[in-house]
Amino acid sequence: MVEVLETVAGHGGELVLRQDGDAFEVIENGVFLMDTRGGESERLLVNGAADRLAPGARMLIGGLGVGFSLRAALDHPDVGEVVVVEREPAVIAWNRTGPLRTVHSDALADPRVTVVEADLVTWLRSTGEAFDALCLDIDNGPEWTVTEGNAELYAPTGLGRLVRLLRPGGVLAVWSAGAAPAFTERLRERFASVEVVPVPVPRGEPDVVWFAR
Ligand SMILES: C[S@@+](CC[C@H](N)C(=O)[O-])C[C@H]1O[C@@H](n2cnc3c(N)ncnc32)[C@H](O)[C@@H]1O
């Protein structure tokens, strides 16, 4: 039986945390955002980026969700520090002190983690920070954003801002619930190497992770 644990007004619309047996689900604006059942591609997003870097990497994770990507980053031997940018205070609270805390063994309490409560698209316009890896999973994909404003991230303007945040040799990793050939082309216009990695899922189109450097 599915139980609604909390419903709040979020920046991207109504945000619901549900429990279905052992699994938790996050729904935003009626659109399924994330659950705690799988997580393979969310882990690949950060592991694939960290595997391409030297030890001690400084990583940005865009979108906390249920913390699968964050947990994978902290478990990777080459990640030294992680900054998570998440715009929904409720998502941060569910992960910090609420039911999602058990999903990632209290990852937010790890001293290597800083959580920034902000809209990533807005934050990118003014931050002067630099990273070895930018791991982005705030939407269902470049062509299926959860809110209209997020589309800027995958457009030339947003990609230009991301490139400026990357240290030399750094990696941009982006998650999607499906292929997005036009986005691949935009990445190829800016990066020397673009890898598109499909990740099979139990039903439907594979997830896709891009690694660009
Ligand atoms: C699909 S979930 C991320 C899943 C995550 N990779 C994991 O392992 O659980 C997307 C997250 O991005 C957040 N988000 C969406 N748009 C955002 C934005 N513009 N800025 C910051 N966070 C955003 C959502 O609130 C949600 O927590």
TrEMBL record:
Keyword field: Polyamine biosynthesis
Name of this chain's protein: Spermidine synthase
Pfam families with a match to the protein in the record: Spermine_synth
Source lineage: Bacteria, Bacillati, Actinomycetota, Actinomycetes, Pseudonocardiales
GO BP annotations listed: polyamine biosynthetic process
Organism: Amycolatopsis jiangsuensis
InterPro entries (UniProt xref): SAM-dependent_MTases_sf
